[in-house]
Every structure is written in C-alpha cells, then in structure tokens.
# Entry
Amino acid sequence: MLKKLFLIMMAFLITFTGVNWVEGVFSPDIEQKPRQFQTDPNHFTIEFFPTAPHYVGDTLSVRVTYSGQDEIANREISLFSGEELETPLARTQFSGFTQQAVFYWVLDTTKMDPGFVTFFFEVSEMGESWSKGLHLLPRPTHRQAEWAVVHTSCCTVHYLTETDAEADIKDIITILEDRTAVAIAQFFPDDDQAHLMLDEPLPIVLVPIVVGHGGFASNEAVLTYSKRNWAGIGLDILSHHEIVHVIDRQINPVDPRPSLFVEGVAVYLAGGHYREGDALLRAAALFDLGLYLPIDGIVNDFYAAQHEIGYMQAAALVAYLVEIWGWDTFVNFYFNLPDGPSDLAIINAALEDEFNTDLATLEADFITYLKTFTPDEEVKEDVRLTIEVYDTIRRYQTIAIPSAHFRTAWWPSISHMRDRGIVGDYAWREKAPFNIIIENLFLEIHTEFDRGNYSLIEKNLVLINSFLDAVEPEKTPLSHYVIGWPLPGVPRLLTQP
# Structure
C-alpha cells in the first residue's frame, strides 16, 4: 500500500513538475531556463497587430510602449517565441521620441495550429522580462483579400480585393483623376509644368478601415474607402487633401515644412476640411464662438492643438496670405523657408527677411480681417458641431479602437506590406455589437450634416457619449474577442457580429 502511494505521488510530481501556467495556458516550465519572466510587466504596454481577433495566416507585429520614468531611448528589447527562449526571435531598440519599440511582422502564423501563442520580452539593461500572449483562431474561410493595382493617367492606385474599393474602382479612378488634375493645376498654373508632373504618377492606396481621420500621406496617399466610413469624409475632399500633401512633398522634399502651412495648404486647396466650406468664414465663426486659438501657441506643436480648430485656422491663414500676397508669392515663400530651431522661429525669420514683419504682427492683421466677416448662425452651428463630433470620434477611438486614433495609430509601411504580400494590418477590423451601434450613430450624424439637421446631430452625440461614459471608467471589455472568442464548441456562424 505504501509502495502504491509512493508511486502515485511520484507520478503527480512528474506530471506537474516541468510545467508553468503562463497567460491562462500550460506552457513548458521556464524556471529552469536562464531567464525569469513575469506575467505583469512594469510600465510596459504590449499591443499585437493586426488587432484581435488573431487568425492562423496573420503575420504578427508587436508594439511595446514604455510609460515609466527611466531613460528608455536606444535601449534594446529582445522578443522570444514560446518555442525558443535561448535565441531571440527579433531584437530592436526603443525610440526616445515615441517611447516605443516595434517589431514589424516578426511571426508568420501560416503554418501554425490554432491555440494560445506566448511571447517573451526582455529589456536586459533594466532587468525587466515578462510574457504576453494571444489567442490564435482557426484560419477564416471568408478572407481572400490581396493587393491589386491599377495604373491611370494620374496615379498608381493600390487597393485590396474583396472590398468596396474593388467594387467601385471605376468611379474611384474618375474622382482621383479629376482631383489630381485640379491639384496639379493649383500648384502649377502653367500647362507645361503640369504635364511634367503627370510623368510621375501619384501613388494612392485605398484601405477599407478608418485610421486617424480617414487619410494620411507620406510619399504616398492612404485613403479610407468604405461605404460605412464612420469618419464621414467623402473621397473627393479626402483624396484632394492627401494628393496635395504628396505633390507638396514631391516639389519640396528637403526644406523646412511647418505643419501650420502643410495642413493649411492642403485644406485650402481641397476647398474644405471634411466638407466643402469657406476657410475664412469658418475661421471667423471660430472667433465669434470664442474658440479661436492664438497661432503662436499652436505653431510649434500643431498636432497637439484641437484638430479641427487648428486645421480651420491654418487654412484661413493660407487663404488670407494668398489674398494679400497672391498665390505665386505665397508658394515662393512657403517653398523657400530657412532652417531654424522651431516652426515659429522658421516662420518669423522668413517673414522678417521677406516682409520686415513677424508672425505676431501678421496674426493681428489676420484677426482684424476675420472680424470683417459675419458668419450666420448656420455656419457657426456647423463649425461648433464639427468640432464636437470629431472630438467624440477620437474619444470613441481612444476607448474602443486605440490603433485607429491618430496619436496611437497603427499605420505601418504599406509599400513594405505589398512587397511581402501582407494585407491584415489594413484589410479588416472585426466589430463587436458595441462598435456597430456607435458607428451607425456616427453615420447618421454625417448624413444630417448634409441636411443641416443639427438637432439630430446633438441627439446622437448625447447618446454616443452616454455609451462611452458607461464603459470608460469601468474599463469594460468592448469585444468578446478579447477573451478568445469563439469559445470551444460554439459554431462560428453564431458568433459573427
């Protein structure tokens, strides 16, 4: 009997010695390895991309954000897979500017089995190491999107198959050709110069998800195109804005580019921000509403200012300068700015050199000019509600989709993704019922702007914010995918949002 009890105890020890509970699953014991890993890192936040849910076939990236007080710039972080703790899967360094370290496309899950995947992280200089994992669901049968391309007289247009962009590509091309032609003519009134610009087609990328406010640009313009674009920006205005950015960079890739002028030019030439509207009249409405922001207070950190106010004022300032100087003088001024330690210093030096003035004096004259406008109540209501709506959109993004907020957006290089055939980061974003409810209300709001139905806009804003108030303080999970949905034994058809 004692011998039998001894054998049972030994079997128990053999069974449970050598395993360790990590992030909710059993994994090989790491206590016998050279490193010790926590499950709750100090001051480090880990995000996996594409965003959850994760499927077999995804190529995973990881972003680590540090929120502590120690110096993190250039410190190395190593990433290990759960299969190999001796040799890192990848190494990278933290940026001192963003306090982040990013591992781009470090794990191709195509040949992996569904289940829980554990990663291990180590910042050896700080004595920090921890584990973090994700649920990898079976490969979906309904996702076959691939990158496609069409070449037009104006542009090279990249898009994803099985999206609204593919269905509407002919109409999209017409809009892009028209808006590109107008933008080029705005920069280059001379037909010969415009023709030369067309020898280098503008790179345009269409994605079905909302990132930021629906578009961004570097050396190529990235635009949200979806029949359910809850950011509410039409392709005509959005494409014109981002096309202006691309042309701007092509013409002036080296000299200083103060954001005040970069965004002001784009909104001014596009004819509005989000919707068409007179830049000077809307800036005058800001002044009447007591919302005007002193330019010297926003010029050095333009994107930290309230977004809509900053963009409206920037466009109005450009419109004012074009009126008093003429377009040719303004463009010559903008494309020949001197180097300087800050945007304010750059603009002041250029104004002093060219016009014997400074930004403070220029702004005083600008404000005097704005006071000559008398925006009616409809314009003021439109301006006020535009600010409130997009503040609410960003609040929704912060709470429910941080990877879509322009301050925390996940927008990796699309050209690198195309080269590697990766689509997941921009191809889709699955929605829980919470997302669908909120985004439907935003879609109604954008429709009512066109109708001037401001009372319904107010009603929807109150409702949206009441929902956000309810979930924000409790940190309530907004998606069942966070817990690894679908649960075993539940047919996938019944779990689709």
